[in-house]
Amino acid sequence: MAQVKAKRHGVSLDMTAMCDVAFLLLTFFILTAKLRPDEAVQVTPPTSIAQTPIKDSEIITVTVAADGRIFVGADAQPVRVGMLDRIGAKYNITFTAAEREQFKLMENFGTPIANVKQLLNLEPAERKAEGVQTGIPCDSVRNELGDWVLYARMLNPKQRIVIKADSEAEYKVVKNIIDALQTQNINNFNLITGQESRPVGSAKKK
Amino acid sequence: MSEISTSDGGKGDKKVRAKKMSTKIDMTPMVDLGFLLITFFILTTTLSKPVVMELGMPDKDDIKPETQPIKESEAITVLLDKDNKIYWYQGADPKTAEVIRTDYSPKGIRRTLLQKKAEVGEKFVVLISATDESSYKNMVDILDEMAITDNRRYAIVDFAPAYKAAIKKGETAAK
Fold first, then answer.
1. Quick one: which of A24, B40, B107, B164 is 20 to 30 A from A181 by CA?
2. In this structure, which CATH number among 1.10.10, 3.30.870, 3.40.720, 3.30.420 belongs to the domain B72-174?
C-alpha cells in the first residue's frame, strides 16, 4: 500500500519551491551582471594564459582599434572632467557646463583635441559613426595622448595604465604608446587579454 | 490560464474538478525557463571577464649599475615579422648565427624555447624584437610563450637594422 502512495507522489512533484529558487537566482544574476560600458569602439583583444583579473577602479584605459586609432578613457568621472579642464586650459579651449557634463559620461573617446568640442556636441549615437572619431594623435610631433594621460594621472597618481588593443592592431601603434608613456616614467603596463587555458605540460604557475 | 477559466464557468458538476486543476499549475516549463536564463547569465558574466597581462618595461633613464654582460651562448633573439612569421637565432651576431624561421605553434617557438632553456640553464635570456608590420597579437603571443615556458629573463628591444638583415637571411634559409 505504501508503495502505491509513494508512486503517486512522484508523479506530481511540487515545483513551486524549485521555481522560487530558480527565479531568486535569476534575479541575483541579473542584478549583479555588469552592464557592458558604452565604448566608442569594439576591440577583440588577443588571448593569453594570464590569470590576473582586471582591476576595475583607478585605471586609465588606452584602447587601440584594429585600424590603429587610439582612444583613451579614465574610469572615474571626476578625473574625466578634471582632465578635460586642464587640457582646455593648455590648448585654450573653453568647455561649457553642458559639454563637461557630456564628457563626464563618455567611457572613452578618440579625437584630436581640436575636435573634442565638436564631438561633445554630437548626439551620443552619432559619435560612433564612421569617420567621427579619428583617434588621438600619439607621435613625437603631437603627443596628445601623453597630455591626456599626464593630466589624468595628476588628478590621481595611483591610476594604472591599461592597454586594450585589438589583436589585429599593428605592434607599431602599441610601441608608440608605450614609448610616449615611458617619457612620463610609466614603466608598468597592464595588457588586457582574453582568457585562454594553460597548455598541458607547461611550466607551473609561480 | 484562460482555458482554465472557461472550463470553470462550464457545467456545474465539473466545477469541483476544474477548481482542483487550477490549484496545481504545472510549473515545469517555468522552472525550465528560469534555469535556462540562469545558465545564460552565469555563462555570460564569468566568461567575458577580461584578464590582464603585466608588462614591465625597463626604465629608460635609469641604467642599473648591477647589469652584467650576457654571454653570447646564453641569449637567443626572437624576431617577429609580418604575416605571423617568426625568426630566431642564438648569440649576438645575426651575421654569423644561423637564423631559423619557425611559427607560434607549440611545436614551433615553444619547443625551441624549452630546448634552449634546458641547454643553457638558469641564465637563459631571450631578446624580443618586432618589426613595425607585426601585429599586437604576435607580441602578446610571444610574451605568453615566455609565461608558458616560465621564462622570466626576457627583454623587448627596439628593432635594430641588423635584425632586418637577419630576417632576410632567415627568409632565404627557409626557402
1. B164
2. 3.30.420
